[in-house]
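Hi D.,

Good news: the full-assembly prediction came through. Inputs first.
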Amino acid sequence: MSTFTADTYQNEYLPLGATEVNAVVTVTSSDGAIAANSADAAEIVIVDVSGSMSAPRAKLRAAKDATAVAIDCIRDDVMFGVIAGSMTATPVYPASGTLVAASASTREEAKQAVARLKAADGTAIGTWLALANQLFSTSPDTICHAILLTDGQNEHETPEDLERVLADCEGSFQCDCRGVGTDWEVSELRSIASALLGTVDIIAEPSNMAADFQSMIEQAMGKATNNVSLRLWTPQGANVAYVKQVAPTIEDLTIRATPVDALTGDYPTGAWGQESRDYHLCIHVQPRDAGEEMLAGRFSLLVGEALVSQALIRAVWTDDEQLSTRINREVAHYTGQAELAEVIQEGLEARKSGDEETATYKLGRAVQLASASGNDGTMKLLSSVVDVDDAATGTVRLKRSVDDADEMALDTRSTKTVRVQKHEP
Amino acid sequence: MSTTCPNGHLSTTTDYCDECGARLTDTPLPAAASAEPSSDDASDAPHPTAPSPLSEPCPDCRAPRVGSDKFCEGCGYDFTTGKSSKHPDPSPEPAEAPDPSQSPPPTAAPWEAVVSADREYFERVAVEEIDFPSHCPSRKFMLDQPEINIGRRSPSRGIAPEIDLSGAPQDPAISHLHAILVRQDDYSYSLVDPGSINGTTLNDNPAPIAPNTPMPLTDGDRIHLGAWTTLTIRHSEL
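Then the structure:
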């Protein structure tokens, strides 16, 4: 198991009467014997074979190729399977509806089964996830990961059906979602990925698919510690305004809290490899008098039920403005990154609905934020949607014609953040 | 092992109180360069934060504190945070009695709850140091929502129950969110206690109902909560 450390970044000094406490906690896991045991990991590739995958024909071919690459990335002894999804879910390999240990021969058989797939019928993603959940349940005590590859909107089941399946699957496996082509709904796939603690991205160029699958599987197989949750205690009379993962991507965890007791809640974070994630916590407390200190939050990291690390979020009230007006760089940085994701999504929404004025303003602000924080990845994606006149002031012009794929790439990757630069200004 | 914090809580953690977050050790604050020494504050502050015995009277109104109550029964002083009820949160807790002219909605719902001060129940539970109110008009609430919360309004905690019992006179033994009425398929209601501090009893049964377990209600059922409050559920004739 990995070693975890948690560090708090905050300005604990608050002006008199202030009630809002902000802090960024960086959690780093290291030294894990990487997925020590391949037998402790399970991988399922879910590939969309609904009718729309055959138009154009290249789409299904590309998806099959990518699935084959994904299968090749699965290490020996990892339990794996492939599911084909349409109106219902079908176990493609093994057809018996279990998982098998990966080996040269099982990988070959799986690829042959995938090559025979034909596209037909509608799309009911909930049924695919339900089957994956059932297959994973045959391999208890494993780190379970799925890849969902789809091109379509979830048209043949109700949102309630999907929500119920997601609730069943939460905590039992993680799922990265990839959209093929440009006909899918970013927000819909994002909600599935978020519920299952995975990522969402677009694969516009079929030729890029293989590389992406490779990195996803390698990352999933690199997880050493499963079932990590963060536990946040806050004092009597306080309430948690939000708990957000802010790096490497923005994920609002606030609504995923499971209450432990009246003052404590648990937030799931899934499986960890050697990595580092940042969390922004905002807690509202009852103010106290000058010079008084309060513990506004106790941030604990749990593996299963075992405490592995902890960080304290403090509040000290002072009438010294020099202390209380100091801006913490980490908190300011991630507040900016969260706004960046927000203005991109709002800007693209406005652009879609023809409100060019709002779109120009929001995307201009995005350019300004991305440039100031050194988020080059997002900056590059933004420049495919707007022409930048002056990044510092956020002066931009909307491009007349924008490739759908570029716009969706910007939307899906808008939640990707950069870390605060550690050198002193 | 456990430690007692300056606000009188027993804490299992030894660095900060696990109830109110108060600092438990005497070590100076890290990097508190220009923060004022806390000993000066204590002498100036209206509400001393030095360890105080549990039975100490309220520093605001001198009413005796009951057990380890969080709030003063006399004036609502918060023993946990040392906050006076005279300087409440930006949005003060209103103590207004519901206006009878506006509480019944234009279309009458078939179910209603009548809130009254119930001397029989008061004498049965006999909570020490809480007096039966000399004057308490009954209040009527129409049951017209799928879920109706019963409790005392708390803007600071974002609790605004449909049946708000914070009006004067206030029954101090009622939790902010004390009980919930949940509408059933046949439009009658079930009673759920989400885990209130002092519990909820039904009719003449002295045992509190089990938390988080819906109890179906019928016409005439009496819900007892706090020290003297009774809600009578009625099915009104249309």
